[in-house]
Structure prediction request, 1057 residues.
Amino acid sequence: MSSGSFLSDDHCTPNEFLSSKSSFQEPSSSKGTLEEDFGSAEDVFDIPSKGLSANRLQQWKKATLVLNAARRFRYTTNDSEELRKERLRRFWTGAQAVRAANRFLRAGAASSAQGYFDVEPVKLASVIQQQQVESLKELGGIKGILSVLRTNGNLGLNDNMQELETRRKVFGSNIYTTQPPKPFWAFVIDASKDLTLIILMFCAVLTLSLGMKTRGVKEGWYDGVSIAFAVIIVVVVTSVSDYKQSLQFTALNEEKKNIQVEVIRGGRRKEISIFHIVVGDIVLVKIGDQVPADGLLIDGHCLYVNQSSLTGESEPIHVHNKMPFLVSGSKVDDGQGTMVVTGVGMSTQWGQLMAAVGDDTAEETPLQVRLNGVATLIGKVGTTVAVLVFCILIIFYFVGHTEGPHNSGKFKAGQTPGSVVFDSVVQILETAVTIVVVAVPEGLPLAVTLSLAYAMKKMIADKALVRRLSACETMGCATTICSDKTGTLTLNQMTVVKAWLGGEFHDPVHDLHTVDKGYLQILYEGIVQNTSGSVFLSEEGGEPEVTGSPTEKAALNWGLKLDVDYAAIKSQSKILQVETFNSVKKCAGVAVRPMRGDKVHVHWKGAAEIILGKSDKLLYLDNKALPMPTDMRENLLNVIGIMASESLRCIAFAFVEMDASNVPDDEEIENWKLPEGPLTLLALIGIKDPIRPEVPDAVHQCQLAGIKVRMITGDNIITAKAIAAECGILQADDLAIDGETFRNYSPEERAHILPRISVVARSSPSDKLLMVSALRALGEVVAVTGDGTNDAPALREADIGLAMGIQGTEVAKESSDIVIMDDNFASVVRVVRWGRSVYRNIQKFIQFQLTVNVAALTINFVAAISAGDVPLTAIQLLWVNLIMDTLGALALATERPTDKLLEDPPVGRREPLISNPMWRNILSQAFFQITVLLIFQFRGKEILSLSGSKADDVNNTLIFNAFVFCQLFNEVNSRKIEEKNVFRGLLSNWLFLGIVGTTVVLQVIIVEFLNKFASTVKLEWKYWAISIVIGMISWIIGFFVKFVSVPKKQWIYSRGG
Prediction:
């Protein structure tokens, strides 16, 4: 086992670990159950809430043991310690009961396991979960477990499908039973609970019974059944939509759980899905990883795990050879190790807990909260209008101003039958309630859900996995992006292109034939042993397989070019202690003892100027170590500067030799801190990592969109400036500073200079957190990328945390809002486009819906108070409601984003949902519809020269038909809020065209064939033409009204804004 390029702080030193204020906790052999009392400590990852309501905090608190535990703990309130423990005890009791039942069901597998593996799965599971040290000794310790499981600690399992399948049959698969998804009928019930729909169904029953009583069964069922059928359609369409989105969110949750794990099979390292792990697998774990299954530590250094997802206790636990127990679901806080899997899936405590808890997908996004305010306001206005219409129509009926339904005549006191009066009142109530149905914008939440679900699905194709719904919206508001360099702005394909050894450059970098063998021996030892990567050479020949981080792979590939025999070098020395890569010190170390001699070599590898600062000698090519004079040190600084100016990452190799007698014995070596100097410098290498070809254009797009891109990197400032300039991040007036300078500013100085800072070099995770906090304090909406465990605080503090899917640790991913699956900055820009698209699509739908609301309410209200009758019946209004709420949401909420979205400035965090251009469009279209349709309401028969018994019916049908076509044409207008050409991209949006076409077909059917159902009559072609022309005029109005400029200052206050 060797060191690694992981982001962590000091290792094996409890008082310094992660620079936290807590100390490590050494587990005793009796430890391991939830019933015990745990101490509390302040957690370095404890980030304040972003302002959730108390109700939402209580909901989060009920799900403290869930898959996304790292993020959800952040939202929980601080209960008393005793209450927390009591809840954990109850949960533990329930989990134990589920586990006992599971063991009973699988008891039959024990007999087969006894013969093949010489161990019972249940007993093996209990040893790990209850941390039974004595039972482990009875099984022969780690070597005994490896033996009974028929696996090899160095080579792993054979990658043989038959053997793997046998292990799954005996021990189970690494999956756990999930709670069944919410069934479709549950969504139907939820949709049916709407109060207005319940009232309408009540009215439908009354209308049906009265109609059949007064007009007979043959004629009397139409009105009641029509209303009921319309309500059923609304319920079904809403239920189907919600159900499909629920299934989609469930599928996305499954994608989040599919973690990639590094295992050893057949002697080679490979990445597999966490679901494919089997008992006996040899798994490599490192800082930031999630422990994928229950197991035992075979070999490791400074391994500390956090079991807060299981116990709620955030104190790190030290895992070592005396207490080697690793439980599934815990996170590696520090160090690295190799473990053998002993339990998977439902045989683990984690699996039982996950099966008991399930997933929570009931997140309510900020935009949904704002829309609730808009919907409530509109609903109150609509309800007020409905009550007024009801009162007016009732008064007009009882004073004899209007006639009752079905030609029942005017009301005459003492003469009109009670059944007719009751039927008239019910019909008036139907109209009033239907006005409420149209006024209450149920489609707003649906539009948000559709838009978010559509965006999340499409963002997968754009290499972005959304973990929090609200992040889709917030990305549209982002004003600055703080990006890492390696892998995000660059290709992450590192190659050694320059090498400086023993006082001179070597070109080509692998030409070391003149170098002394003793020098090469110590250099090769540093390359081979001081790495977290590996080199696999197949016995069948072929290209070597190199694994590890990009930097490690570059160094190992350089070793291959030097013809290093990795297996031979490894066998010539023994690793005593490891310090993995430290994001503060930016170096990694390993202590090895050669098989010959009584010396110990401590090798260090890391940032060149840091290693140089710790070195006082230089090993020359003749294998002689001499003191480093001042001029040589200056020369080396120039060498580093030359490499950095060429955008190369400069890495140094150094070592210190010491007597074996100065090394602690086996009992104390676990806590031994490696000596950091004075060192003897061996070599400098320059690693080239080309920038991604698409990055300069992506950065330019961000700048056009009003988003400032900042680069935060661990490279030295010369390298950082060269790469930032190449990417287009560092502009003429921008500043590039190092992390130390940035953190030493006073808050006032930092706030003053921050807008000009584009590059922070030699930064630490704390610098990134400080940057995010300072930017947010200035009112910026900050998106930040991160891949390491120590990036978690910054990812949580940012408005949008973007974790890297390839290089990112599981801790970083769980702390993020969105995972960029290809680690590409261009994908971040695509996420910005989707964020703006979600917000813009919701605005389009609001504009469309408010136009219908204003027009329908005004037309019915004016007609009711002036004529005592309404032109649009309950069935017709329900059909308009279906067009507006469901089909309109589906059409407008699923518009794909365009590059034009990036030409606008970021959406303001407090920008009103209904902007002045939207009010301009809404009022102009509503005024047109109200004017035209009221003219037809009062003068339609004269204008159309209608006469006869069906004149009123034809006129009312024309009003209904024209009203529907106005909405269809205005739906096209709503595609573009400010752009005059509303047809751009229309022909490529097949979903939109399909919905509009379907609506037209259904409108024809309703008018021409469902006359009794919809209270319509068949129209002649000329009346169809009039309806379409009236609708088309809305296009002309929509075009010319956009020439009218509107002020920036808001006209009308919106609660949603």
User: Anything to note?
Assistant: Residues 1-85, 104-114, 1053-1057 have pLDDT under 50 and may be disordered. The longest strand covers residues 294-306. The first helix runs from residue 54 to 61.
